[in-house]
Every structure is written in C-alpha cells, then in structure tokens.
Amino acid sequence: MPASLFGLMESPSSVSQGREGMKMSIGRYSYRVALVALTLLSVTYGTEARTYDQTKARGQSRTAKSSLTQADLDTVLSGKPMRLDQALAIAMGSSRALDQSIANLDTALGGVGESKSALLPQLSLGAQAAEYDKANVVDLGAMMGGPSLPLTIANRWNRSVYAGLNWQIDLSGAVRSAVSQAEFSALAARIDVDRVRNRLAFDVRSGFLQAVRAHAQIGNAEENLKTAETRLSDAQKYEAVGTAPKFDVVSAERDVAEARQALIVAESQETLSVAALKDVIGIDQATSVSLDDESNLATPESTAGATERDASESGSFAALVAEGLKYRPEVLESKAAIAAARHGLQYSRRSELPTLTAGLGYNYQPDNGAFTLQNSTVATLTLSVPIFDGGLAKARRKEANGALESAESNARAASDQVKLEIRSASIELLQARSRIAAAEAGLKMAREAYRIAKERYDVGVSQSSVVSPQLELSAAQSALAGASERRIDALIDYRIAEAALDHATGRFASHQNRPQ
Length: 516
Hints:
63% helix, 10% strand, two-stranded antiparallel sheet
C-alpha cells in the first residue's frame, strides 16, 4: 500500500469508535467502498493524492431520518437535561444538512463508477424475431428457363440471437482523465461532508449556548423580580405605619412592573432560542427539551487572556493558521476541485486524439435463408480519427480552462477566508476572556453595593440626605441585576468564541480530528 494512502484513511477500528460515539449508523454504502475508491485514487495518482494526506476515507453514509420524537429523546437522555455533547451527537444523527451532503457524496461516488465503466469490456446479449407477410422465395429454374427450382432467401419467420463484446482501448488516455476528474470530484464531495459537520458542530454549540444564555437570564430576571416584590411589600408596610412616603410605594411598584416585563422578555427569548436549537439539531418543535447549563456558566480557570489558551493548545497565530489550512474542509475541498479541474482539462485535450475499439460478436439465426449463415462470428477493430468536430474540442478546452481558473481562484479565496476567520475568532476569544474578568469584578462590587444599600434601607437611612433609602436600594438592585446579566453574557460569549475558533481551525470537521 502506498505511503500516501495512510493519510487518506483511518483504521476501521477508529472509524467504528467514532461512529459509535456520535451514534451514526451505516447507510447506503459502506466504509469499505470509500476505502476501495480512495485506494485506487492513491495507487493511480499517488503524487497528487499526497496533497490531501490529512483527509480521511471514512464511510459517511447513513439512512436519512425524520425528526426525533419525545420518546426517542427520552431514550437517549433518560429523562435528564440535555448536555452539549448529547446535542452534538443527536445533530450528527438527524441533521438534514448532513443527510444532504452525504447524498451528494453518494451521487459523486456513483459518477466515479460510471466513468470507470468505460475502461472495462462491455458485453451485450440480445434476441430478435421478425415476421414478414410472406417468405422470400426465388425460383431459379424458372429464371433459367428450366424446371421449377424454388430457393428460400428469407423465411416468413426470422429469429436471431446475438452476443457482442466491445472494449474501448484508451489510446489517448481520455477515459483515464475522465475517471481521475470524477475521483477528485468525489473526494471534494467527501470533504464537503466534513465541511457540513464542522459547520453543524458550530451551529449546535452556538445555538445551545444561546439557549443557555436565555435560560440563565430568566433566573436572573426571576431573582430581580423577587427582590423587587420584597421591596414593594416592605414599602407598603412602612407606608401603612407612616414611616415611608407614598412615593416609595409607587417607586417599588414601578420596579416590580419593569422586573416582570424583563422576565417576560427573557422567557420569550428562551422559547425562541430553544426553537432555533431544535431546528439545527433536527428535533421536532413539539418535543420538550431541557438543557444542562451548569458547566457552560462556570468561570474559566484562568482569565489571563486568550493568548495563553492559544499557546497551550495550538501555539501562536501562525500555528492556528497552519492548523486551519491543514484541517479546514473548505481549503481541502478547493484543492480537490483544482485537481479535478486539471484532469478535466486533460480530458478535453485528449478527446481530440484517435480512439480504438475492439469488438467480438456472435450471431445465431435458426431460420436462416439460402445466403445467410446460421452461425456467424465476427471480430472488429475500429480506429476513429477526429477530423472536424464543428469546434467542439476547442469549446471544451475553453470551458475546462475556465473551470480550472475558477477553482484556483476559489482556493485562494478559501485560504484567505480561513485566515480572516481565525484572526477574528482569536481576537473575539481574547476580548471575551477579558470581559469575564471585568464582569466578575463588576458583579462583586455590585453585590457589595447592594448589601450596603440593603443595610441602610433596613435602618431607614441612605448615603445622601436628599435620596430616600428606597431609591438608593432600587438603584443598587438595578445595578446588581445588570452586573449579573453582563457576567452571563461574558461567559456565554466566551464559550461561543471558543466554538468559533474551533470552527475556524476545522477542529470539528471530524469528531476525531480535535487536537489532544
């Protein structure tokens, strides 16, 4: 087995483990089919195949599924809240986008087989039966002026059985070029499955985190409402005994109304976020889902900055770019498209060269006439030299050149886009981590300010003689709710920035590709 092939495939055991982890079932074609196709590709075009030594020839197909039901989810989750890894596993098994990309790969592999069929002998069998209005009989005796001597040229019934074997001898290499083009197109389609998987992983993580954000904001809004209602109750009691003005009650009622409105908005946002997550995963909208959000709202171990994380996991920005160019499916797909376009150009040139076809045929006619053999065998060798094709070859070359230029341009664009996304994701991750530190400090100060304001409120004094204790406590409570909200946003934004960097570097193109 050529060395280049080792870069094109994984061991069956690793593929099996990966599929079990993501709960993907084998579908229309097997892992062995993909291995055979890419093995032939590596053996015949080993030099070009080395360009894609980072790709994997895993079996990608699985039977398309409808949306999961509540019973299906209960079986998977056992009645517990859904974790992020479970959401990813469910999406990999039910995503419509992934189903479509696998169907496209199936189509591309069929095209490879169709192209290769031209290199193999073609065997055909047939039978024919014809009935004429009458037999064709010639009287040779009458024609010579003698006694009658009838001779049957063709019977009224004429049956025949034939068999033919044809083999196109690819003198010019045009068919081999067409096969190569189809194989690299299939390779691009297989890499596109990884592209969809990489994007799906990001969309699921992002959607899951947005739903977690919305749920956490509900908890924050509920706590804010509870505190506002407590203040309103206190203000009403103090007013009743004449120790607080009516204004404090009105102010507290306003805060309660605003807190209730904030809670309604938060609940609505959670409903929309969960609905969007269900759509991405492939879960029916009627199913009930709860999310496990504890780990995603935990403060990262370090808030020293994203560059430290990058150094520990992937190194400098240059290392991140190198990783992205190595694993990002868009880059690999564009390279495979370039190779396919080059072979398409070769095909367009070689199609102008002579073609040679060898044939062997056998014909059996039990109702043969006088001048027809009952059994006949014929061997043919046909050489076809194109002289004038009306400009077809020239048009093909022009089309193939245009396809190659387009593929090269797309490859440059894909590379530039990956670099831009990695740069943006790195900066966003750094900013998000810094925001966590600031939000944590702000929340700590807001809690302390609220504690002090609450103690003053309880004894009926405020920091300033012109500000009532009720207003001071209201402002402190509002500041605390805002600080808590900003902390939640900072934590979720950080997790989303992590997912964006993983997507930008292509770490989830395969669930086995993530660097350890």
